[in-house]
Amino acid sequence: MAMKIRLARGGSKKRPFYRVVAADSRMPRDGRFIEKLGTYNPLLPKDSEERVKLDMERVQYWLDQGAQPTDRVARFLEASGTLTKTERNNPKKGEPGQKAKDRAEEKAAKAAAATEEAAAEE
């Protein structure tokens, strides 16, 4: 059974609240889980003690059993010092999408045509 340590969403519309749970990876996000390991409240300030609460003893147990944390949970564990910090790099994040690239090419082609036309008139 492939285990994940992940977030299960609770709370009402536009008021998110998450439980950090150990669950089978085949179960739905808010579905059946094996054990609740903590909570995460993104509405609280980042420096608040209540924002992320984890039972580190149980988290360590599940990590030892081979459970894989999701990206967000891994960040919580890195902040607490349980996991080693991994380098993240997303070189495509700042790159414009295909449509924006096409528009830029069209604009450059029109500008080049305009300068060519102006040079031919002189």
UniProtKB/TrEMBL annotation:
KW Ribosomal protein (keyword) present: yes
Basic and acidic residues bias: start-end ranges: 85-109
Gene Ontology cellular component terms for the protein in this record: cytoplasm; small ribosomal subunit
Transmembrane segments: none
Pfam family for this entry, one: Ribosomal_S16
Biased composition, class Low complexity, residue ranges: 110-122
Keywords noted in UniProt: Ribonucleoprotein, Ribosomal protein
Keyword Hydrolase: no
GO terms under biological process: translation
InterPro entries named in the record: Ribosomal_bS16, Ribosomal_bS16_dom_sf
A Gene Ontology molecular function term of the record: structural constituent of ribosome
Region feature (Disordered): 80-122
Entry similarity comment: Belongs to the bacterial ribosomal protein bS16 family.
Protein name per Swiss-Prot or TrEMBL: Small ribosomal subunit protein bS16
Organism: Shimia aestuarii
